[in-house]
Amino acid sequence: MSEWVRVAAKSEVAEGACIGVRVGDKEVAIYHLPGGEYCATANVCSHEYALLSDGWLENGCIECPLHAAQFDIRTGKALSAPADEDIAVYQVKAEGDDLLVQIPG
Fold first, then answer.
1. Do 64 and 47 meet the contact criterion of CB atoms below 8 Å apart?
2. C-alpha distances in angstroms, 16 versus 1, 59, 63, 88?
3. What predicted TM-score, i.e. pTM, was given to this entire model?
């Protein structure tokens, strides 16, 4: 069973930026793309432990700060070496100024 969990206020995630949050035992990255779109993925690189929210967000991709692996934040697809494993993607919705993420139970 999945539940929606409030993770941040929209005002906490600047356009073109991302933040890391903890939801239960999961590290989650919240992204704010130009045009008001929000996305959420696992915040830990699948190649080696590094927080993706410390990386660089550009054109819908996040680059890991440790070894420069890139991931599509809409699909979680690993786009470049050294990562060869995709990351989890979570649904996001806005309710007023709140951002909620659906976390599988």
1. yes
2. 32, 9, 13, 20
3. 0.94
Please spell the DSSP secondary structure of 14-29, one letter per residue: -TTEEEEEEETTEEEE
- CA-to-CA separations, 7 to 63, 79, 81, in angstroms, rounded: 22, 27, 30
List of domains in the chain: 2-104 (2.102.10.10)
25-80 pLDDT per residue, tens: 999 999 999 999 999 999 999 999 999 999 999 999 999 999 999 999 999 999 99
Q: Looking at the chain, how many residues does it have?
A: 105
Greatest pairwise CA separation for the chain in angstroms: 39
Which residue in the block uniquely carries the two structure tokens 């420069």?
68
